[in-house]
Structures are given as structure tokens and as C-alpha cells.
Write a structure and sequence with these properties.
The protein is of the alpha+beta class and about 900 residues long. Helix content is about 45%, strand content about 15%. The protein is globular and about 95 Å long. The two termini are about 50 Å apart.
């Protein structure tokens, strides 16, 4: 069932195998099929009629203006307007002439398929379908059992027209996807006359378990399942143990079969109605194929499949768009020291989720070594940093906060003596020692040909960059995090007790509006949006095209047809410069997690929001904050004198000198991560090629010792150990842990050294009520609005202006979203975390450290956020 590849280059046709096109050229369905076919997966042969053919058809018939006119009356809330709009556009398409060059190429490509007038399936492939976070399933049409060149050409035309069904138009309006930015390709494939077909999810769609796959199977073609005409068999499969967990064999009454001119529904023969449609062996083989697709995409997948003549075929694959958070196993918290105490605080706020094995070994080791170097150079002794100061418990990062008498004495002795020096020299140490050491490590390896390096050299380079990261992080923690917390706390106390009068602004007003790295990134992106505005074709493309499509075009350097080439090249260069400067800003300190520079869609989406006016001008916000700060300072100075004036000025000067440093420091954490990830992924690709891993990305699920051994094997010319099954088990365990809420303190307690942790440590799950969540109020104010739960950067585009941003934690890379949000609620964080600082700058309420917000708050649910009291009220039915 393989297509013969056309021997002559075509303008409008691409074979399904041997190509790596862009989403913009072939649409979501074809893009996925081409990826699978090129990877050697069993995809029926055929070809794609690219979007270039659709655009030529629209242009030659002058349809763009008439489509635009018809769309003016479309209202997503009024179905009759959608039906009328759809009818008029489809009539235009069916009455228009297909360009002769398009018809000829389609007919020639069809004739090159095996057989005489072979039966094919003609499927629509839109540029805004099968994308993460959106499901366009069933909105465009598919034609089965099409025979003959003329019938194939006509089916392609009907696919084009189906881009304008009432359902598709309404969905795009509701999802705020511009109609001008969509187009449609068509896939023509040899038809599989399936005896059995169905759908497979490579994660369990009912409970979110990533270690399970679920298969639906029925007799005949898959239309009976997709169309809901039959209750299919359901098989739940354990991906790790390669065995069936449960099988539900349904009474299958109807099946779709091929007829002379299409398909028809027939009764299932009596002997087959209660018989399993898929054997255990066939189910295992199907899941094996599904795992290959899942590893290729790096995400759970929804796959349509067919079985014919004992062979399995993959007909479609798309990322799962609505998978519930996985149910995790009961978590056992085994303490390294049964009498010890451990907290999720300080730098752990940058590690909100479960850790990858490579970070929990290599990353944590380097962190401890960097902190010890800082302690020795600033305080005179490494013993200030105890063993296992940062460690992993139950897969999560914790700080050790209980110490032996020897450790306590060392910390008391050296910290007491070294604290004045640390406060005096901490910032210069970070600027002159920590940060330069990091930059020097990056410079030693940047620009080198990674493919030419041995496996051992790649691992050495990764270790060198990580050592630089650790030295910088230790210096940053000593020079910025501690002093910024101490200086703000001291100023707040002086202001509250000796200066503030009724009606005066809060202490935070005096510390806002200073330039820092996240603000520079915001302004740089805003400047890029302003540059785009007068370039109307470019601006129209950016505002009317999904961010994922723009990202694909940017990555593939495919200039959109409607954008002048010079404008595109200049915009692309400017975005590349932005990513070069700010793309290393981390979402999470675990280097297994992608960066903005890896996937620029969230950055592009924010650029679109600046262009559309949804997001606020960061320059205006900065000016407002500076004016408020200057006014507050002038008012205080006008009425203070003597010792109060002296104390105010001293505390204010110290606090203001520290104000921007914490954000600058956190923004610099990931400076070496782009290079670090490139080196590790290059090494991972070699291990995958050698059969040790299934994909390059699985390298993050090896421990440091395992990776060192595997790299040494490669350099000796030996086959490294097969780690695929082990990596798969660890990934599944990591996924399941995402549903776990790690206690803020182990053993659980509301006090530390007899002092209440309320107000600075995450609230425990057991303390939360049924309709209210307690947290740490870090930015005053009250807002009632719909909540938007964001799991990570892949969800950034879902936040709408005025919604409450709900997340595990936010880092500087999340800053632009604050210009859209009306309030912020997080699982992790405290008074001096990034979320609280930025929320105060934007003047929006913030409640942090709830522990469970991302689990307890439903997406779209109405909530009231009281940042003064630190309470979030969940409104039922909202």
C-alpha cells in the first residue's frame, strides 16, 4: 500500500514519505502523516495536495474578498448566521474553476498510485488543526472509496469548501483564530479496506494515567466509532508491563463497509457481535506502534488505526487536547533521616514539579558544589553548607532544615562571622565572580561543532556549563535573594512603625518601577510589536494566524505568501535577536524542561497580544510606577527629620539598591541552558541511534552515573546498555507524580523551631476547605473573575484578558501574562517570590502558596481572589 513517488518535482503535490514540510504548507493531518511515514511507521501510501493549491484556487477565482464579505455576518452565538455564511461560501467554491495546473498535478499523482483507478481516501488537512490545546476533529470533510482522477480532483475541491462549514467557522470565532490565516491541504491515500479499525489513546483519557493506553476497536471502517454509531470494544493496556489490564467487549450491532460508490452501514454478522474485534497480540502490537508515535511527538497521542490482512496501519495522529491530570499512586515520603526536617522553600520554589533523574543527580550535585564554593569564598568554610542541603524526596526537591550539633556550630560560627561580609560583598561577588564564571563556562563551549565532539567531551562540556550555573546560583542566592529579602523586610518595618500614616501607600510602592531583566524582555517584545504595526501585511498575518503556525513558519523559515519577503526576513531576524537575549529565561530550573528558545510559540502569542492591544504597554506601567514612587518619597521627605529621616533614608537606599537584583538573578539562572540542552540532546541522539534510548529526549531520564557509563561505551565503540524500558518507566512515574501535592514540610508541621510557618510556607492540603483555599496574600486587592489554569508555557495562549491566572508557580518567563491577568493564584510561592513582586507591580491581587490551586480550581470556574487576606473563594456553578 505504498505510493510511487512522482519522478518530477511538483508545485502543488508532495509525497507522504521523504518530506519534512511545515504545518503552513500541508496542514495538521498531513504534517503528522508525513512525520510518521518518514519515520518508517505503517502509513498508507499517497500524497498531499498542499495549501499552495488552495491559495491558487482562491486567488484565480477572486474568492478572498467575497469570503471576507460573507464572514461579516457570522456570529458564533447565532447558528443561523453561521449556516448562511457557510452556505454562501461553499456555493462559491463549488461554482469556481479549479486551475488547470492543479487538476493536472493531482490527476498525475493519483495515476502514479499502484493499481488501476485505485480506491483512495481524500481527507482534509487544515493549517489550524491537530495542534496542542485545540481539537478541530470532524470539522472538515473526508471522502472514502473515491476512484478515478476526476473524482479525486472533485473530492479535493469539496475538502477545500469544507474549511467553511458552519461548525468550523463558529469554532474559529470562539477560539479567536483569524479566518484570514487559515488554509487547507488535502491528503490522498490508498484506502485501507479495514476488517477492524478504531482509535487509540496512548494515555488513559478517563484517569489521565500516562502509563496506560486505551484502545477502542470495532468491525469495519472507523466511521462507526467516530460517528458514534456503535459501542466499541475497549481495551486498557499497561504500557510498562506490556499487558492488558482490562477488556470490555461490547455488543457491536453496526459496521461501516465499502460499497460501489462510497461506504454504507451494514449489520454486524451475528457470530461477530459479541466477539473481540482485536486479539491480545494485535492490541500489544498496536500499543507498540503508539509508543513510537508518542516518543516522536513527546506527548500523549490520539491515533486512528486500521487492521487489514493481519497488518496494522496508522491513519491519523494528533496530540491529546483534553487529558485530565493523572491520578498518581499513593505517595510514600521516605525521609533520609527519620528524625530530620525538610522544607520546600528558598530555591525549591524554582522546582515546583517532580524532578527528572538527570537533574536530581547531576544538577543537584553541581548545585551543592557551587554553594560550597560560595560559602568558602564569602564565609571562610564549606561546612556552612551541610551534606544533602538540597535533596530529592519522593521525586521532589526539598531543603534540609534540621542539622546535627556539629553542623549547627559550623553554621553559627561562620555565618555569624561572615554575615557582615556577605551583606557587604554579596552583590559584587555575584556580579564579579558568580556570573562571570557562568559566562566563561558557556564561552568555552559555545560555537564548537557539537557533532564533532566525542560522547565523553559532550558530557564534559555539559558538566562544565552546569558547574558555572551552580557557582552563579550560589552567588545569586547569597548576593541577591537573601539581601533582597532582608532589605525589603527592614524597610517595611521602619516604614510601618516610624513613617506611615493613614492614607499613605504601602511600603512596596517605594520599591517598584526599577529596570530589571523581565521588564527589559517585555519592552523588547513590545518594541517588536510596534515595529510590526506599520507593516500591514505582516501585522495582519501575525494577528490572524495561530501562534503555533507562526512558530512553525519561523522555525522552518517559510515566508508566508501574503507577507513581503523582506518584511518576513527582518521580522524573523528581530525575533531571533529577542530569543537570543531572553530565550534562556527558565519556566522551571530542571533543565529537562524546554525553554522559550526551544519553542517560541508563547513568545509569539504575546507579541500578537501586543499587536492587538490586549496586553498593556510596559512603558506606561513603568512610568506610572516611577511617578507613584517619586511622589511617595517626596511626601515622606517633606515631613520627616532627625533620626526618623536618617533611618528611612538608610533603609530605603539599601532596599532600592536590591529591588531589581532578585529578578535579574533569577533571569540569569538559565543563561547556559540552551547550550546545555543542545549538548545533552546531541548525546541523547547518539544513544538513541545506538538503541540505548528510544529518543534523544529520554537522556533526561537517566541518572548521571548511567549517562557517564553509556557515554564511555560509545567512545569505546561498544553498544551501550539498553535503557529504553527503564527510561519509559521513569517517565511514566514522573508523569504520575505531577498529580501529587508534596507537603511543604516533612514531617508535616505548621511550626519550625517553635515559630509558625503561616505567611511564608505553602499551606498543606489538609488545611484547605471545601469552597475556600488559604494561601499567602502577597499583593492586596479583591477580584472576582473566571480562572484560567495554566499547566505550563504550552497553555499561555489560553489566558484571556481579565481572567485569574492559576499556576503552580510563575518565573520571569511568565511576566508578560501579568498584563492580561486580573489576579494571580499559585500552588507555590511566598512574599518575595517572582509572582508576588510582579503582581504588586501590575497592581493585581495575588494569593500564593495554596498548595492545591491547580488541582482544586476548575478551568473557567469563577473565583474571588482576596490578596489582602490570602484567601481564594471557589464559586460553585461559576
Amino acid at each position: 500500500m505504498n505510493a510511487q513517488r512522482p519522478s518530477v518535482a511538483k508545485e502543488f503535490i508532495l509525497p507522504l514519505s521523504g518530506n519534512t514540510p511545515t504545518l503552513e504548507l500541508v496542514g495538521g493531518k498531513a504534517y503528522s502523516l508525513m512525520r510518521m511515514a518518514s519515520a518508517g511507521l505503517p502509513v498508507p501510501g499517497g500524497f498531499c495536495v498542499t495549501t499552495a493549491a488552495y491559495l491558487r484556487f482562491v486567488a484565480d477565482n477572486g474568492l478572498a474578498g467575497r469570503i471576507h464579505t460573507a464572514l461579516q455576518s457570522a456570529d458564533a452565538e447565532k447558528p443561523a448566521t453561521l449556516d448562511e455564511c457557510s452556505r454562501s461560501i461553499r456555493e462559491l467554491f463549488l461554482a469556481s474553476r479549479i486551475p488547470e495546473a492543479v487538476s493536472r498535478e493531482v490527476a498525475e499523482a493519483y495515476s502514479a498510485l499502484p493499481g488501476r483507478d485505485p480506491a483512495v481516501a481524500v481527507r482534509s488537512s487544515a493549517t489550524a488543526e491537530d495542534l496542542p490545546g485545540m481539537s478541530f476533529a470532524g470539522q472538515q470533510e473526508t471522502f472514502l472509496n473515491v476512484r478515478g482522477p476526476a473524482a479525486v480532483v472533485e473530492s479535493v475541491r469539496r475538502c477545500w469548501a469544507s474549511l467553511w462549514t458552519a461548525r468550523a467557522i463558529g469554532y474559529r470565532i470562539r477560539q479567536r483564530i483569524g479566518h484570514d490565516g487559515v488554509s487547507l491541504a488535502a491528503v490522498v491515500q490508498t484506502l485501507v479496506p479495514a476488517e477492524v479499525s478504531g482509535v487509540m489513546f496512548t494515555a488513559n483519557p478517563l484517569n489521565g494515567r500516562r502509563d496506560q493506553a486505551v484502545i477502542n476497536a470495532s468491525w469495519g471502517l472507523g466511521e462507526t466509532i467516530v460517528g458514534g454509531l456503535v459501542s466499541p470494544d475497549t481495551i486498557t493496556f499497561d504500557k510498562q508491563r506490556r499487558k492488558i489490564l482490562a477488556r470490555d467487549t461490547a455488543a457491536k450491532e453496526v459496521m461501516t463497509v465499502l460499497s460501489g460508490s462510497g461506504t454504507e452501514e451494514q449489520p454486524v454478522p451475528e457470530r461477530k457481535r459479541l466477539a473481540p474485534a482485536l486479539s491480545d497480540r494485535q492490541a500489544a502490537a498496536l500499543v507498540k506502534l503508539g509508543l513510537q508515535v508518542e516518543r516522536m511527538y513527546g506527548a500523549p497521542m490520539d491515533i486512528e488505526w486500521a487492521l487489514h490482512g493481519g497488518a496494522l496501519f496508522l491513519l491519523q495522529a494528533r496530540p491529546v487536547t483534553a487529558l485530565p491530570h493523572p491520578e498518581g499512586p499513593s505517595q510514600v515520603w521516605e525521609l533520609p533521616d527519620p528524625k530530620g526536617q525538610y522544607m520546600r522553600t528558598s530555591v525549591v520554589e524554582l522546582l515546583p514539579g517532580p524532578l527528572s533523574p538527570l537533574f536530581s543527580t547531576m544538577g543537584v550535585r553541581c548545585f551543592l558544589e557551587g554553594n560550597r564554593r560560595m560559602a568558602k569564598e564569602l564565609m571562610g568554610s564549606e561546612s556552612v553548607i551541610p551534606d544533602n542541603y538540597l535533596l530529592t524526596i519522593g521525586g521532589f526537591a526539598y531543603m534540609k532544615v534540621s542539622f546535627s550539633p556539629k553542623e549547627m556550630w559550623a553554621m553559627f560560627r561562620y555565618m555569624l562571622l561572615g554575615m557582615p561580609r556577605m551583606l557587604r560583598e554579596g552583590v559584587p561577588y555575584w556580579r564579579n565572580v558568580g556570573l562571570p564564571a557562568y559566562r566563561a563556562a558557556i564561552a568555552r563551549w559555545e560555537g564548537r561543532d557539537l557533532q564533532a565532539l566525542s560522547a565523553g567531551k559532550l558530557l564534559e562540556g555539559a558538566g562544565d556549563v552546569l558547574n558555572g550555573y551552580a557557582v552563579n546560583l550560589g552567588a545569586m542566592m547569597a548576593g541577591t535573594m537573601g539581601p533582597s529579602a532582608g532589605s525589603e523586610g527592614l524597610f517595611t518595618q521602619v516604614y510601618q512603625k516610624a513613617v506611615r500614616r493613614e492614607g499613605d501607600p504601602p511600603a512596596s510602592t517605594f520599591l517598584m518601577g526599577f529596570e530589571n531583566a523581565p521588564l527589559r524582555a517585555e519592552k523588547n517584545l513590545y518594541d517588536l510589536a510596534e515595529w510590526c504595526k506599520p507593516r500591514t501585511d505582516l501585522a495582519a498575518y501575525l494577528t490572524g494566524t495561530p501562534a503555533a503556525d507562526i512558530s512553525a513558519a519561523y522555525t522552518g523559515n517559510q515566508p508566508p505568501p501574503a507577507v513581503p519577503v523582506e518584511d518576513w526576513k527582518s521580522w524573523r531576524g528581530r525575533l531571533a535577536d529577542h530569543l537570543e537575549q531572553f530565550g534562556s529565561c527558565i519556566y522551571d530550573m530542571d533543565f529537562a524542561n524546554p525553554l522559550p528558545s526551544d519553542e517560541p510559540s508563547p513568545i509569539i502569542d504575546m507579541l500578537r497580544r501586543y499587536l492587538s492591544g490586549e496586553a498593556r504597554n510596559p512603558y506606561d506601567r513603568e512610568r506610572t510606577l516611577v511617578r507613584a514612587r517619586d511622589t511617595a518619597e517626596a511626601d515622606v521627605r517633606a515631613r520627616l527629620g532627625g533620626i526618623k529621616r536618617w533611618a528611612f533614608e538608610k533603609a530605603l537606599k539599601w532596599a532600592q539598591s536590591q529591588a531589581p537584583l532578585r529578578e535579574d538573578g533569577i533571569a540569569a539562572v538559565g543563561l547556559g541552558y540552551p547550550l546545555l540542552r543542545k549538548m545533552l540532546l546531541e548525546l541523547g541522539a547518539r544513544l538513541a541511534e545506538a538503541g540505548a534510548l528510544s529518543s534523544a529526549g529520554e537522556i533526561f531520564w537517566l541518572e548521571e552515573s548511567e549517562l557517564a557509563s553509556a557515554a564511555a561505551s560509545l567512545d569505546r565503540g561498544e553498544t551501550p546498555p539498553d535503557c529504553r524500558a527503564q527510561a519509559g518507566r521513569r517517565i511514566a512515574e514522573w508523569e504520575s507524580r505531577k498529580a501529587v501535592v508534596p507537603p511543604p514540610m516533612l514531617p508535616p508541621s505548621s511550626k519550625y523551631l517553635g515559630i509558625s510557618t503561616e505567611g511564608w510556607l505553602t499551606v498543606t492540603e489538609g488545611e484547605q476547605g471545601a469552597s475556600t483555599l488559604k494561601g499567602i496574600g502577597t499583593s492586596a486587592g479583591t477580584v472576582t473573575a473566571a480562572a484560567r489554569v495554566l499547566r505550563g508555557p504550552e497553555d499561555f495562549g489560553r489566558l484571556r484578558p481579565g481572567e485569574v491566572l492559576v499556576a503552580k508557580i510563575t518565573t520571569p518567563a511568565w511576566t508578560p501574562l501579568f498584563s492580561l491577568a486580573s489576579a494571580v493564584v499559585t500552588d507555590v510561592g511566598g512574599p518575595l517570590s517572582h509572582s508576588s513582586i510582579v503582581a504588586r507591580e501590575y497592581g493585581i491581587p495575588a494569593v500564593l502558596g495554596t498548595g492545591v490551586a491547580t488541582r482544586r480550581i476548575r478551568d473557567g470556574q469563577t473565583v474571588t481572589v482576596d490578596g489582602g487576606r490570602g484567601v481564594v473563594t471557589l464559586i460553585e456553578g461559576g
